[in-house]
Amino acid sequence: xxxxxxxxxxxxxxxxxxxxxxxxxxxxxxxxxxxxxxxxxxxxxxxxxxxxxxxxxxxxxxxxxxxxxxxxxxxxxxxxxxxxxxxxxxxxxxxxxxxxxxxxxxxxxxxxxxxxxxxxxxxxxxxxxxxxxxxxxxxxxxxxxxxxxxxxxxxxxxxxxxxxxxxxxxxxxxxxxxxxxxxxxxxxxxxxxxxxxxxxxxxxxxxxxxxxxxxxxxxxxxxxxxxxxxxxxxxxxxxxxxxxxxxxxxxxxxxxxxxxxxxxxxxxxxxxxxxxxxxxxxxxxxxxxxxxxxxxxxxxxxxxxxxxxxxxxxxxxxxxxxxxxxxxxxxxxxxxxxxxxxxxxxxxxxxxxxxxxxxxxxxxxxxxxxxxxxxxxxxxxxxxxxxxxxxxxxxxxxxxxxxxxxxxxxxxxxxxxxx
Length: 419
What we know:
disordered N terminus; 18 helices; 3 domains; five-stranded mixed β-sheet; Spore Coat Polysaccharide Biosynthesis Protein SpsA, Chain A; about 425 residues; single chain; alpha/beta
């Protein structure tokens, strides 16, 4: 393991010191040493507030394995009003807690170390959010390691407390920053792509080291540890992992007429749209991608991709068209033309449960399942890096058990590394 700014550890009995009258600063310093000495407390964190009594009857290991009795208890807890009230963290909490960044990082349990293998393969993230601060912060905490870089985009129309809380959280980390040019995002419109493009540009400018780019929204959550992700990305051997399919007849309306934002919503202009440039076959994929650094550089500099962008600005959900269709262009780094052994069916970027695919134990928003704790066995049977979507307001237990699952995997990685 490699430390970041760690001082030599000393043998201190913190309980004895706490019984005495000592300055608060010394207590905090000793607690910091205490947490560093116990990696299970900071590599994959526990909630700030001690919820051990609340979770004493919750067996997350059995939950993710699909044990019926454990799932039943977890489902009951997730819907218990008293539990939901006790564990909820408000926007105001984050605004106040981040006034002391050192204490915030410590008490929220952000990672301060990484393996050499991870250090040599840093990642770049774009996170687009517009609400649900606790969702965002728990996502950030789950994926945070000091060598990665994180660009955060908050919709300019977001609530003021949301924007302030997320900006405060970002300000507490040297490798997390707010995008330099935020935009007003319109659902299914070009500005959703522009938000990621602005983060891509910033990420290329702030670091020359990162190897792969992953774009997220605030309601994603990881299914793997950072070390597992690094190994999966190394296995791509420079290829992108971008889901794509030929656009089917029932969805051609998205690209056959021109669409434009009207009063905050995307609407058809009724005007016929011409074919894509360069005789490209229009492909439909996911808004979420895993892409090598070279591809991101090409997106920002390749005139052919820029011409495709101009065409995509008039389609419905251009984020589902641009990334997929650009993969056909010869010479684009990581594209399917350059790495034909990588197929869309093996895309690792995102697991999404669409209506009609499988049973959703939560509820649907825009035909996408918002997962509940009972969905965890199904989620973890897949190979993806992230799953979408989660909502701590409707089922905080689902996120808690995923946190516990990742924590146990991280501890196993540490134990294996020490042998």
